[in-house]
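Exercise 3.2. Students should predict the tertiary structure of the chain below and write it as structure tokens, then compare their answer with the key that follows.

Predict this chain's 3D structure.
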Amino acid sequence: MNTAAHKQKDAVREHILATGQRIMAGRGYSAVGLNEILTEAGVPKGSFYHYFGSKDAFAVAMLESYFADYLSGLDHTLSQPGVDMAQRLMNYWQQWQDTQSFQDCQGKCLAVKLGAEVADLSENMRLALEKGTSQIVGRLTEAVEAGAKEGSLRIAERPHRIAESLYQLWLGASVMVKIVRNKEPFTSAMLLTRQTLGLAA
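Answer key:
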């Protein structure tokens, strides 16, 4: 296959993944059928199986793509020039709050939307979620450790425990935001985050 054909094949695959991510982030995994995704994407059903062996395999690929994009954005945020690590971390939490809307997250909150649902449906999807979230916690651990070393953070626990606890805190807050239909859980999460990192309220 020549280079142009490869690029076209990759583009179609990415288009299907992006369409599925956007729809499933709004309605979940089980409520969305392949026909709906493919109709929205404008791709014949026969072509789908050229790229993915099953809906389960599609969902795993979608999660992998989601986490790759997420980690790229996180790396960018945590390497912003001109600010200390404390500010970079707070920028990350602010971006979380701004993008995890209870009204329309446009695919940005896929882990929040699918986490509890698919972990019990598919071991492959659960493993993709576990790997992706572990990588996020790993990045946050490195950031907390760096912030403590430079003196912008004052922490009382091990960096990994703090990173894990804060990530879990914000996942929980994202779920509560959907339940109560306001952003008060994020306000509470932000306050506890600042306290945990030894920052002024």
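Discussion points: The mean pLDDT is 90. The chain is about 75% helix and 0% strand.
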